[in-house]
Amino acid sequence: MVWQCRSEGSHWGSASVQLALLLLLSQEDYNLMQRNSLSGKIPLSLTNLGNISKFELFRNKLFCESSTYFLTNWTKLTSLQIYGNTFSGIIPPEIGQLTKLEYLYLYQNNFSGSIPSDIGNLKVLFGLDLSTYKLSGPIPPTIGNLHNLSVIALYQLTGTIPPEIGNLTSLTTLYLNINHLHGELPYTLSNLQKLMQCLIGEIPKIFADLASLVHLKLFFDDNVLLRPQFSVFCLCL
């Protein structure tokens, strides 16, 4: 059963009440779409939905500190999209147990801490957006295990770009522009022959080898990578 609510003008009030009602209606697929004006705390009773395959509650006013209970029970999830809310806490290592996950969109929330290396277990992941401003720490090298990944966006991270990122040969979009990275870009980026959009903060010579690249935007920001002589550069091939 798929439960969808798409109206953008409705006001549903307390999440604890409304989501508890939906527990009675759905035992397989939990798919609330955007801007339903849902508010309140996500009830832990949702962990009982062991057969859930999609959890999409984006652009509401929901909050909940990250809990391992959701992740350990929701191992059938293919889509976890909760962006545009006020969820907080760390991204727990148990995220690596969601091995069927294809979409992980957590941006525009209040998640903090580092990205767990266990994220490298999500081998079928297609889209990854963790562009939230409270994350910290390095880009985990295990991200190079995500060979199916097409889109990746990471914000506020430190350290260097791991050479393993060159393993993401299905990548078409790479956003690393709002970070505190340093050092040289790994030459393995030249392996990303399908890359079409890249925001990263400098003009590396290796992009000359990327035949599919259509737009390359480079910005001055907090990256400590080599700076270009101009702020925006678009390359059309």
UniProtKB/TrEMBL annotation:
What are the alphabetically sorted keywords of the record? Repeat, Signal
Its ancestry begins with: Eukaryota, Viridiplantae, Streptophyta, Embryophyta, Tracheophyta
The species is: Spinacia oleracea (Spinach)
Top-level taxon in the UniProt lineage: Eukaryota
Gene3D superfamilies in alphabetical order: Ribonuclease Inhibitor
Q: What is this protein called?
A: Probable leucine-rich repeat receptor-like protein kinase At2g33170
Domain Disease resistance R13L4/SHOC-2-like LRR: where? 94-174
Gene of this entry: LOC130469575
Q: Where is the signal peptide?
A: 1-27
